[in-house]
Amino acid sequence: MAYTHNLGYPRVGARRELKAALEAHWKGQLSAFDLEEAAREIRTANWRRQSGLDLVPVGDFSLYDQVLDMSFALGNVPERAEACQGTVLDRYFRVARGRTAGDAAGVAAGEMTKWFDTNYHYIVPEFTSGTEFTLHPQRILEQVDEARDAGVSAKPVLIGPMTYLWLGKEKDGSDKWGLLDRLLPVYVELLGLLAGRGVGWVQMDEPVLVTDLEPRQRDMFAGAYAALSGRGVRLLLTTFFGGLGENLDLALGLPVDGVHVDAVRGREELPAVVDRLPKGKVLSVGIIDGRNIWKTDLAAALDVLEPLDARLGDRLWIAPSCSLLHVPVDLDLETDMDGEIRSWLAFAAQKLDELRLLGRALDRGRAAVAGELAANAKALAGRRSSTRVHDPIVKARLDAIEPSWGNRRSPYPVRSALHRRRFGLPLYPTTTIGSFPQTAEIRTARRQYRAGELKREAYVQAMQDQIRRVVSAQEDLGLDVLVHGEAERNDMVEYFGEQLRGYVFSGFGWVQSYGSRCVKPPIIFGDISRLGPMTVEWITFAQSLTDKPMKGMLTGPVTILNWSFVRDDQPRSRTCLQLALAVRDEVLDLEKAGIGIIQIDEAALREGLPLRTSQWREYLDWAVGAYRIAANGVRDETQIHTHMCYSEFNDIIAAIADMDADVITIETSRSGMELLDVFDSFSYPNEIGPGVYDIHSPNVPEAQAMVDLLRKAARHIPPERLWVNPDCGLKTRQWGEVLPSLSAMVAAAKTMRTSTVIDV
Ligand code: GLN
Ligand code: ZN
Asked: Can you tell me the distance from the alpha carbon of 292 to that of 288, in angstroms, rounded to the nearest whole number?
């Protein structure tokens, strides 16, 4: 009997009910009681969707973030939130968001960062040498009771102690690993309480086991689990987002009752796992991809599972590879989606149907589910042979790529001399990152155009009016390199995806990004090519309004790839190269149309880095290679910019330099240019625009503060290679903030020009 279970279910609700409830609560329009009620309804619906599984996760639901829930359960709440008046829920939202409904002052929100290599962001636990833990088990116990009352066979989910520590950050330079001994008794106490509730199995999430662990951390694992074992519940140690690699024996050897492995990303490792699994231990095989939206090849999955079933018997469990938090909720809502493409997909609810089906096939044989297997095979065969997936022209273009396509014709010094002559820019040239405020007016025009309420002509008119406004504002401000403002873009990936063959968009394919915030990643299903020029009409119109250089604005292939659901029938690198060719076509069209400066944003290049450093080289090689194909086909006279929304690239600086962009703009203001220290040990060869003010804040920066930052930057980078720009695009800001901020920025650049002497 193969045992079926799930690791976690999306909690936003099929129609983002949680988002609506949270935001109403924060606005003071929904009481805490009603918010909890809405949450209860979502949990109930989720459990219903998971019925028929042998074990259902409980405690995976969260009002904001499961890591923050764990911090509260462990009594690890930052003092600044403890000090505030109010209920536990108020304190919870204070840490999550800095304030709660009706807060006058607020406190600093907890830092947010990415959950492993996903686009989910968690609230970073904060530690000091004085951190003490005390158990606050109410939330998890209530959910266990609630599940029991609903007749659910509950498996509480906890973040394991090692992963919890790994995720957090020391605020005082102390060593967080020293806290393990204080942490374990609280886990022990919690396990005891769960045992008292009659809980059989507890899921201990330890995804850090798929990362590079230090020897000391590996040693601590053994000690930690020795302390947790034998507490009246059985422990399922769950690992996901990759194979275990050199941590395999460590994971299998821990004193737990079962181990879950990611058999999608760690498929090749599975035979070794089975061989080395200690007698008596359960093996949970994560056979359904929890990170992507494709139907599982059920026959292929059974080919893997059947021998395991024969060997392990009831010690074999099956599950999705990881929590389904990272996929949309329910494909059945996608009634407007192209039927053929929809037949290739599975969202969270459908993935559980697949799981139940695999369970039945293992128990009763394939013949018992022959109809379902045949339907699955038919859908997959359709996808494999579809002419909408496979475009021979794209394939031929890919095969014809020559390595020289990734290279500029001349090296940077030659190019920069040409650029100086062509653009005649002053020292410390000023520019922005691309977008200007997205006003209600702009959004309305876009929405009406989409809905067919606004004719093409009227829409173009509305966008051109915006471009006129943005261009004249920039001229008044005295900026040197202008942008058109991106009014026509809802999103920097979706805008391009909609103009590419090979993309499909869902109506309800929301995935939680953080708190109430969801994203709807577009889906790449087929070979990519442009339907036609994507940006040329807007950029050339903008250029026609001014004598200053207009910067063409594109999203790069790596970022488009990393922010989409991607094909699983070819390597990511190949999909990326297809995107690169499409972007390259656009770059060359812009150049042909007379645009002299083109920016290709690679906001998401860094976040695509694999969890294992041993795999970085390979990723960076193909990612930077694809960017270069996209960017470097231009003449020497054309200036290429790229932009990245971070600057922690000490570890990848060589790869960044290898992109050979003439100018790179990066985020640095929040760190006070500290992040530029890397340029002391690595001499970056081209031009840089370190962001001089933080666009995430409504504050208007002082010119002097920016001068100070620029002076610091000039210590690391020669002044003749420095640009002056904000940290990122301005689309989330108001005009009332943007104008004074940019005016101060231009003033700062002027101050720098008059006070800098260049040795020639
Ligand atoms: N060009 C984009 C903008 O200005 C860049 C956005 C980003 O880097 N996230 O909005
Ligand atoms: Zn940015």
From this structure: 9
